Amino acid sequence: MSLIVQKYGGTSLGSLERIEEVAKKVIGWHERGHQIMVVVSAMSGETDRLVKLARGITFRPNPRELDVLLATGEQVTMALLCIALEKRGCTARSYTGGQVRILTDSSFNKARIRDIQMDAIRSDLDTGLIVVVAGFQGVDEEGNITTLGRGGSDTTGVALAAALKAKECQIYTDVDGIYTTDPRVVPDARRLNRITFEEMLEMASLGSKVLQIRSVEFAGKHNVPLRVLSTFKEGPGTLITFEEELVSEPMEKVLISGIAFNRDEAKITILGVPDRPGIAFNILGPISDANIEVDMIIQNVGRDNTADFTFTVHRNDYERTLEILREHTSRMGAREVSGDNKIAKLSLVGIGMRSHAGVASQMFQALAKEMINIRMITTSEIKISVVVDEKYLELGVRALHEAFDLAKSS
Ligand code: ADP
Ligand code: ASP
Ligand code: MG
For residue 302, what pLDDT is reported? Predict the structure, then answer.
């Protein structure tokens, strides 16, 4: 008998009918002799609705109280799922994050899991109960309710699977696996049988919101076998795996595994800063002091001993970043500060890139063919990212998908 952790996303639990379907699915696994722990998200749209409620009062609600509010979404689905399981004669018990004791730090709205104490749950599972845990939430040392950041139920699932040494953590969602790119943008995107943790981590960090970044980090670190599959359609899904495990499957050794994209970006340019030591620090110091994360950075050196400096931040931080820099423009001796928040980042990801030259030029050629101007470029061992105007994002994704022949083989 093996223990499986199953996480069901918001769309999978979006109505009473769907919750009843999930209950049937869970019972099916249980009847096949597995111990089952279920992690639930809130019903689709519910977390957004709760955020909006709070913002209806003030744009910056108190983070502690916001978490008290947001954690209610998952409490609804965990109870409804247990009620649906019991209706079918199955004994089930629900737990909030605090009741399990998913202990987190106190960074409200983006807390990190520190420890999980689950003696009660373990004995429930041993007596054959189905345990349902609210995803996305925990408690800090003082007993305050915390949440783990948007998409955080994935991380709850993986963390519980790690703590219980489960055979597998199954992430059930509205797509039947990880695709070469978001199938909503490229309908003929192809499902991958496997993808490595490294690639999945890049895809998630570069904008593919199918899995929360932390869940992938956590699974990689704790060796949790992780699989993404559909709630609505039978199939093997996609297994996230270690690179060594791919060696026996040479067919999977492809150059590019996927294309990620992200619209949440904004670009800031500081023109004509004196080209001397300390300038990058002068520009970025106040930004980091304000807790704003900087992503891509480029610096051009001009002929008159001045430099132009460009970097990107999250779109939500755009106005604040401009404000901070404008305060410092004269002190930095800069000529001008300008920005653009209608940009997007497009990235190619693949471990095959390590041993292949020419991927970048093929990428640039495909974008040039569509007359898409590249504004910034960064590369690492297994990814190439470019910044383009937001209006070209979808065209760019489709062009790259075609240029690298990622579509389904028809
Ligand atoms: P859930 O509510 O189940 O957590 P999410 O909306 O968080 O579901 O994640 C599933 C969605 O992720 C899909 O509907 C799909 O549009 C999107 N997605 C983005 N990139 C990919 C990708 N590479 N492969 C599959 N799905 C992707
Ligand atoms: N309900 C939370 C959200 O919408 C957590 C999750 O679904 O994973 O972000
Ligand atoms: Mg999700």
Answer: 73
**Do 204 and 211 touch, CB atoms closer than 8 A?**
yes
- CATH number of the domain enclosing 354: 3.30.2130.10
Q: What is the extent of the structural domain holding 99?
A: 3-246
- Mean pLDDT lowest among 66-75, 159-168, 326-335: 326-335
Q: How confident is the model at residue 64 (pLDDT cuts 50, 70, 90)?
A: very high
From 209, 259, 263, mutation site for ligand 1 pocket: most ligand atoms within 8 A of C-beta? 209
- Tens digit of pLDDT for each residue in 100-113? 999 999 999 999 99
Helix (H, G, I), strand (E, B) or coil at 191: strand
Quote the CA–CA distance of 35 and 1 in Å, as a whole number: 7
Tens-digit pLDDT profile for residues 13-33: 999 999 999 999 999 999 999
Looking at all shown ligands, the one closest to residue 151's CA atom is 2
| Max CA distance (Å), the chain | 79
**Which of 246, 277, 308 is a domain's end point?**
246
Place of tokens 């994704």: 397
> At residue 331, does pLDDT exceed 80?
no
Asked if 239 and 279 sit in the same domain, the reply is no
Nearest-CA neighbor of 157 among 39, 11, 73, 8?
39
Residue 44 CA: nearest ligand 1 atom is: 2
Pocket of ligand 2 (CB under 6 A): 9-10, 41-42, 47, 73, 135-136, 150-154
